[in-house]
Amino acid sequence: MSFLATDILQRLISHPPLAQTLKFTEVQRFLEFTHRIWPEIVGKRGIVPIALPSQPAVFLSTVLQLSPALITLCWTAFSDLALAFHESEPPLSVDDAFRIHGPTHHLGAEPLVPPVHKCLQNGCGGKMLTHPVITEARLYTLLRGVLPIYSQSLYCRSCHTRYYPTYFACEADGANARRYYYSSDIPTFIHVTESSFIEPALCKLFETQMVTAHASAESITYIYNLALNSSTIPNAARLQNQLNDEFVWDAFFLHAVLRDHSSRREVLNIPHGGPQRHRLDEVLAQRNYRMFGTGQEMWAHTCNKCMKIYQGQDGNWYQMTAGVHDGVAVRNISCRVHECSEPLPTQKSRFCLYHSYLDQECYINGCANPVESGFSTCRQESHRAHELQTQKKNKAMFQLHNRLQSAGIYQLPRAGADSGPTTTTAPTTASNVSPSDNAPPPTEETVSNGSDNAASTSKVKGSNSRGHSHNEQLFVRCCGVIINRATMFGSEGISGVLTFLRATFPQKYPGALPSYIFYDNNCQFAKYLHANKIHDFDKVGLPVDVWHFECKHSATDLFCQLHCNPYRFRELIGENGSWVFNSSAAEQSNAWFGKFQNIVREMPSLRYNFFLDEMIALHNQKVVEELHRTGQNPHFIPDEILEGGSV
Fold it and tell me: Which residue, of 86, 298, 311, 429, has the greatest Cβ tally within 10 A?
């Protein structure tokens, strides 16, 4: 028997009315419920009362179905045990009792209160916190569904700091108020919105669904509401319990930011005011900046799959490493100016702030005339016709009408018209429709002018839509670990590839540079290096990966054959004639990475970059776990080797 059980039995013996009435399990339920509502019992000063306050007493009497006298006696006997008592897996019946009775008594299924009762700010002298504010909220959990809770905050009148369950806000009522979390640890429950908390375990489920199944926030919401929010007891609270897409994204990004700060032992602080969707912009930008180049956790990764030992012709043993990079068609909205990497101010903008003046110029190629009010083109007739025609083409009715005409269907049946016998007839095509049947539909006038304008606008080119980046470039170790990612805005040009590789392997870490870098366009890259006398990769072999070399490169290109034929590098061929490295690692990673296109295509650039880097980091963890499982000895290259020391 445990020490706690022995203690409870001794106290029951000391209180005969309890011993004669209560079962041991009923005492456990009393302790569990009392533990849950402990903050309400001790109040804002945290002092344990001699007599149980009336509201908690009524609640306990209701949910335990015990008389007020027995509740009072239980408090006398067991109050000092309640604070420390907490079952690791409390019975769901306890949560259901809070769903039914908690809102009536303004008591939540979990205590969400500030962890302090005195002000922490220097100069306040530890003044007691006052002005409690109680907010009705809900807690989204992994295994317990949605729970009704009440979140409490306290205030320091001296320094105007308000203390919440997971953070405090300095100058809480001011325009420049900031939130500071209490520590670098991820909170037990994450405060996402004013009236919503979430369990970190549920956030991990969200990100696991994203990284493994490429699940959208909409799919995650549907699955949770259908399968995990499964209590048969509805909450009596007034708040809606259904998860929604926006909350999934807010929870995902906040949890990821908290984890990032926790890994670096830094305390998160963010703006307290402003729109919810922009509250994390500052820290997202900081993390995105750190991730560029060498920021991925697995950047210095190596293992038996991407690093090999071979014996040279001189009899000595050498180490060689390899990686492969490639572009994948994942694109984000961007400034329409070619190669511009500045973010858009809004999701509907065509230009970044720097190029916003172009919004006042006609969008037709080669025309810089000012636009007229209400239009995106100048007054030139052909330019205006192009804009009007484009607007028509964007309307669903125009598109559907054109599809009918392309199918040879020109006569539209009217609702209620006699369609004749139901026998099978020849399909209506251009060859079997009589001239009298070719009457235009009622909306013909609104769309037919396109054919008249086609000739006048055929030579006019331009686009009034948003721009898009070209692709994402990934560098992958031959074991499948992705060590860097970058956005190519205009094209996957050779100069952009050079910039990407220089960022991935900066000169201050010469030991990080692989012995071989596979790339499907290495022949053009090598020519570029030779022509521009660039020596960054003089000691690196630049073969084309095997598949592309066999299928995409000419056998008559002597430069390609001499410098980029993988068979030329004898170290890449094993004793049994097979290739030592998996040069298709990037293609395999691209197949996984490319499936995020539908998720990220409308994301703001800050979230877009953060999300993709986070997915890569989580993917790498899975890959490394598998490398450990299969005995491939994954580890990090030591700093002295990265900085150029000998092996």
Answer: 298
